[in-house]
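Student: Send me a single protein entry containing the residue sequence and its fold in token form, directly below this note:

Tutor:
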Amino acid sequence: MSLTIPTRPSTAVLLTVADIAARSSSRNTLRQTWSQTMSMAWRATKRMRRNPEQFFDVTIQPILFTAMFAYIFGGAISGDVKSYLPLMVPGILAQTVLTTCMATGVQLREDMDKGVFDRFKSLPIARIAPLAGPMVADLLRYTIAATLTFAMSIVVMGYRPGGGVLGVTGAIVLAVFTGWCLAWAFTFLGTIAKSAQAVQGFSMLILFPLTFLSNAFVPVGTLPDGLRQFVKVNPVSHLVSAARDLANNGEVTAQVGYTILASLVVIAIFAPLSVRSYKRHL
């Protein structure tokens, strides 16, 4: 059985019963949700290609920060730049990926303010797809930032990670996964904030203290007692320590497990909150 629906005097769209049922269904299967999320990811990727300035932060920041921190703090902390690299590079890796994921919430808020998401109201798609799709596309940005961090330190500055290719790859994968999980928190901020500027301000207020009040750039033993205790429980410190163990020694330590567990907790909390908050705007 089929139904012909006229759209213009000269054209018509032929819909089968299955098509009508699919469009009127209130729920999507897991396969449909995955397909819709990938479609949204492809849309976000095409947007990146048309707006190459979105790659400026992930291409310039790793190079700039790696050189700046190494030459400013290397002599003061480790005696020379080369000795500082095993301590600093995993810290720069964590900082670069985590600060990059702030853009997720900012871009989401900009799209909502422009009315882009209003177009999705009438579409029979899973509510998580418009949120998760751009985040899947952002994995490309995280990977570029993480890879450039190691490329700059190895090729230009002489860093020689003891963990070899597998250790460096493991550190990159862990950092990218952690950044993707944390991006859900910034996605939630994007759905509740009044403007993109507010999202960016709140994100920096949260992330910058966590990044700099960690073991990313200085040995924990040099810190005051009170600050040292905070640094030890800081999730960013676990990520940095895990990246160091992987890149410098090729070891999968308990820090890797702590980092993955904390990342999964962030998803479990903020993914449902983001979807619920997004639904309220529809």
